[in-house]
Amino acid sequence: MAVAGLATVCCGPVAAQTSTALRVTPSLDLQLGHSRVVDATGARNDDLVLLRPGLRLSKASGLLSGNLEYSLGLEKHSNEFGSEVNHQLSASLLSTLVPNRLTVSGRASYGRRSISAFGTQYVPGSTLQPENTAEVGSLSIAPVLRGPLADVAEYDLRWTGSATNQRRSLVGDSISQQTSLSLRSAGNTLAGWVVQAERSSSDFRASGDTVTERASVSLVLRPDIELELQLRAGTESQEGLNVGRGSRSTTGGDLRWRPGPRTQAQISVDQRVFGRSSRASFDHRFARASFRLSTTEDLLRTGNPTGLDGAQTLYEQFFAQAASEEPDLALREQLVRTRLAQQGLDPNATVGGGFVVNGTSVQRRHDLSWAYNGLRMVMSLQAYAARTSRIDLLGAGEEPVKQRGYTASLSHRLGRDTSLGVQGSRNRTKAQDARPGTDLKSLNVTFTDRLGRWTTLQLTARYSVFNSVLNAYRESAATATLTMRY
């Protein structure tokens, strides 16, 4: 009662503030769970008590905008002495220091991640004691300075710094930097030009440094207001990679198509010193659904388990889908989060996969996401396939890591405050010559009931099967979670 009263006093006026105001949302989760695991050693039972206080800050516009979400988990297992403490952090911020001139963006995350793609895998929320996981934090900061240059060109100067750290280990610890300067012809004329120079470096504490330097000149053609084509040529040099020559000439091109506010597509291909890099995506938004298909192949310079671009969260999917329904960013955020909460869906849920990378790599990743928001039913699908290859000097001869998987969910609103949902997922890692593959499948059934303005009860039954030559298991679990958000 004291917690609820304090949250109401502190945050009551926030709801009445404008979209430019800081929105503060404290939360408290209490979870009770029971699981039964069968593996090579036999069957064992475990009871779990979890207390998770959290805080969410959001601001839609102004000098500083974005979201920051933090929670502290206090776990007690019946088959373990003592208790476990874990942290979860997710932040995405943008600061507009000088309008249309200087901005600084930042992203941060912290939480448990898979160390190896070939170790024992777990589904999110599993009551098992994780053996192949570690707390991993990542941070990236990107200031950008842009503006006109003597009315004939526009400049864009940016620096991006990223760091990844694995707690109590050097594996995956990395620091990367990228500095770029581009000059482009002013205005949206039929033909234009772009001159660009870039320097990128990465330092993995477990494997060493790599450096690449690039320079290019591009011809820009705009035959239509909806279409833009770029053709470029240049040169690139590298140090610390085990592929390609020390330097070589490069070629590439971009194609961007935006026929309307609901549809956009782009393709970018370059022949670089390590091979081919490419990015392609197609996005379309329907009245009640959204669809995105993307493929990326490029250098992976940090140990961040999410990879090059990471998968979209459920919140990001439905936020994009609701753009026409609610243009105001702050009101749209409230709308989407309320809908997901009513359906018992985790807004931060993503497709699985990923692992801690311990050297400069080339990653090729394909992602598909689809979301539907009906009057009483919500459906979503996320699928991915990824291939990660070490290309630094210490990674010479290593086989690529190949992963693929999907997550599908369906939730139906039974009444004003109740819903029933089903979620299925599968994540596979292909076997290598020296390491066996893994296959994790899971099915969840969730009942959600809103008990009051601030409180929600969620009952979940889960069955998971993990297949591998080592550490195979089957888990049956049931949890009850009482969530209070103010």
What does this structure look like?
- The protein has helices at residues 2-11, 314-321, 329-342, and strands spanning 23-39, 42-59, 64-77, 84-98, 102-114, 133-149, 153-166, 174-185, 191-204, 208-224, 227-239, 247-260, 263-272, 275-285, 289-300, 361-373, 377-390, 401-413, 418-429, 438-450, 455-467, 473-485.
- It is mainly beta.
- The two termini are 13 Å apart.
- It has 3 helices and 22 strands.
- It has one domain (2-485): Maltoporin, Chain A, CATH 2.40.170.
- It is 7% helix and 62% strand.
- The protein has a 22-stranded antiparallel barrel.
- A hairpin with a 3-residue loop joins strand 9 and strand 10 (208-224).
Give the biggest beta sheet: 22 strands, antiparallel, barrel
The helix/strand class is mainly beta
What is the radius of gyration computed over CA atoms, rounded to a whole number of angstroms? 24 Å
Large-scale geometry: globular
CATH architecture classification name = Beta Barrel
CATH fold group: Maltoporin, Chain A
Query: Which quaternary structure do these chains form?
Result: single chain
Compute the number of helices: 3
Number of domains: 1
**How many β-strand stretches?**
22
**Succession of helices and strands:** HEEEEEEEEEEEEEEEHHEEEEEEE
Helix content: under 10%
Which percent range describes the beta-strand content? over 45%
Ends distance: 13 Å
Question: What is the mean predicted local confidence, pLDDT?
Answer: 85
Q: pLDDT under 50 segments (min length 5)? A: 1-18
What is the CATH class name? Answer: Mainly Beta
